[in-house]
Amino acid sequence: MVPQFMFATGIENSNPTIQNGTVRMDEMAKCGHYEHWQKDFDLVQELGICFLRYGPPIHTTFLGPDKYDWTFADATFQDLLRRNIAPIVDLCHFGVPDWIGNFQNPDFPVLFAQYAKAFAQRFPWVQLYTPVNEMYICAQFSALFGWWNEQLATHTAFVTALKHIVKANVLAMHAILEVRADAIFIQSESSEYFHAENPAAIRPAEIMNARRFLSLDLNYGRRVNSEMYEYLMDNGMTRNEYHFFMHNNLKHHCIMGNDYYKTNEHRVSADGSTKASGEIFGYHVITSQYHDRYRLPVMHTETNLWQGSVGDEAVNWLWKEWANVLRVRNDGVPVVGFTWYSLTDQVDWDTALRRNHGSVNPLGLYDLNRNIRPVGKAYKQLIADWSHVLPAHSICLQVPIVMPQESHRIWAQKQEAQMEQASADESTAQANAAPAE
């Protein structure tokens, strides 16, 4: 086991549908990862990174109940194992296969748990998981804003999507733990805050600031406040569904991953409408709020910024976020990792994947030609400067990670021992069954 601070990046694998399910916004395809995955893994190593937020494309891997195409996953995950890069496996990133439909489907949680277990059985050396990425944002964009997947815009649709998504996450954690008892789950949820722009906006802002916690409250089995309980009940959640979340607390297996961008803070008007406020509180204040609520180790699981016209905007944002991470840590919060997301530039996130324009967003550590950006050089230097300092500085910054190659050996030894025991048991049973002479 190697206790270490987890410097990470990610390979963007969003894949929601738009235009009533007719267009799949597959970021791995848009960013060229299917063609350049080996080069992308080379770049991860060039940066000195050992942890990668990564997952197989669910829509081309999960073909039906108990039916999978592991071709791409086998190639990529075998290579990650060979390189000893620890994946934080992102199994569902904003989309589901066409045959499941969307997040209104009540069968999704059980089906997804089966998929998660099948993955864990095929890749037993994997320890770190984000079963469902950004559960709150996924439900909000799909069923409250009407942007993706089901493209609905009602509170009932939002609650339905949310309860199915979080239940899928919880059931997947249970399923993975059946295979890998020491699995660690890093939630990766958006950390939000809503600012009232005038006194009349205080009430709607309060409601939004309560609602932002719903996905993690349910996931961690934390009782919601009375107003949010009424909100859930009024919009289709049953008492039995709510009790499921309260009785399936796997908090002790979790790290609270939180994502922070300049767009995560919002200004609220009296009529409840919102617009971006830009960075006001920042990562330090908002993460402290989330940690005070859940009391879990924290990993900063996503941030980025466009390189900009001057060319140093992303570099300055990296250092600002890192300074916030250190401030949170110095306040006593056990921060265990940091992530610039993603490895390469992304495509069409300037419209939140609502428009299939092919617009390149210059916010990666590398551009889409796989040339390093200034922020990539800065992150590489940051990792080199800090990677050997933080683990030794405080036990709060250490997580006992079993790296892939070590885990593979442990698993092989365990399987060999189980086979030997099974063989011995069979021999004993045969001996006991033999007729006495």
From TrEMBL:
It comes from the Bacteria. Residues 414-437 are annotated as: Disordered. Residues 415-431 have a biased composition (Polar residues). InterPro entries: GH, Glyco_hydro_1, Glycosyl_Hydrolase_39. This is Family 1 glycosylhydrolase. The lineage of its organism: Bacteria, Pseudomonadati, Bacteroidota, Cytophagia, Cytophagales.
